[in-house]
Amino acid sequence: MNELQVTIIPAQISANLAEIRADLLENLKSYDIEVTIETLPEAKKMATDLNKLAGEIDKRRKDVKKELSAPVDVFNAQAVELAKLILDSREKILKQVAVFEDKQREHCKKLLQNELDALYLESEVAKEYQTGNIEKLAILSNLTDKAKLTKGAIEKVADMVGHDRGVQDVVESRKANLSAITERAGIVGGIYDKLIDPIIREPESVYTAKLNEIIDGIIKQQKAAEDRIKAESERKAREEAERIERETKARELEAAKQLAQAVEIAAERDNAAKLAEQREAQAKIDAEKQKEALENAQKQAKEERKKATLERAMLEMERAELEATKQSKKPELGKSCKLFFITAQIKLRCEPTATKEDAENTLKEIIYESHGEVVKIDSVIGE
């Protein structure tokens, strides 16, 4: 491949910039004026002229720069194109290299994993103790030219297995001795695995210190639990004794209350019996009195009926005599007379002992004396 050869001919620019600068400094003095109301138009014109002059110089500068930059731009474009062609080829090579190295690392990782699994099996390391990580060992330098593991890589894997086997032996030994340790410490039921698992793989000094802390804590908890159980048992016994005492007192009070009620009921029954006897005796007396009163009433009624009969007979006799007397004194009326049928309410004043019949007869007599006749009496109401 040919080497890049570049020939540079420096550009030369010839311009009277120094002369223009000296002339410009001299001429700008005339533009150094004080702006007033009279010089304001001239000042604005001066500013316009200066701006036009600056624009012409800047335009010329850009034209010169563009003219000189043209060959540089062409060279730059061509050089960039060449560099891109080179870099594209490089990228293809690097990609192939990366793919090859990835395959080699995967091959190395597989060989390391096979070696690790074989050594774990050979050393009888349980799954829970297998912590070997071959990720960092999966590098190209751990492969020989024949794509085999180097001796150093195999030794590092063996070290991993040996470490895990040592941890397993320590843990199994510690677990085997744990029952005897807890038994000597007086711990009932041993120590839970969840307390031991976090420290079982610690270094000996750390493990011993933390184990002692756990044992001390369990003993304190156990003692506290025993104290609570004892206190709870005493409390229950005390409450049971108090309950029995309360129930005994309650039964005694209830028995006394029932006895008092029984005595009261017996007394009430005795009083009721006595009262019943008194009432029975009084009832007999009252019955005798009622019987005697009834007999007296019957006798009195019989006497009064007899008396009333006699009085009625006497009244009949007197009435008969009175009628006979009235018949002899009653004036005669002519055959031609006018009849009146009168419906009236009549109030008669009679003796206190008068009866309904007496009132009817008295009314009939009064009407009779006036040449009248009582045809019908509907009802007689006595006060």
Question: Your description of this structure?
Answer:
- With 383 residues, the chain is mostly helical.
- Among the domains are: 17-185, no CATH class; 340-383, no CATH class.
- It has helices at 17-28, 40-123, 151-185, 193-196, 204-329, 356-369.
- It is elongated.
**Helicity, in percent?**
over 70%
Given helix and strand content, the structural type is mainly alpha
Poorly predicted spans: none
Radius of gyration: 77 Å
**Span between termini:** 169 Å
Biggest sheet features: none
How does the overall form come out from the CA principal axes?
elongated
What order do the SSEs take from the amino end to the carboxyl end, as H and E? Answer: HHHHHH
Count of runs of 4 or more consecutive helical residues = 6
How do you describe this structure in short?
The N and C termini lie far apart (169 Å). The chain is elongated and about 200 Å long.
Features:
72% helix; 6 helices; mainly alpha; 383 residues
Could you outline the blueprint of secondary structure elements for this entry?
Elements: H1 17-28, H2 40-123, H3 151-185, H4 193-196, H5 204-329, H6 356-369
Helix pairs in contact: 2-3
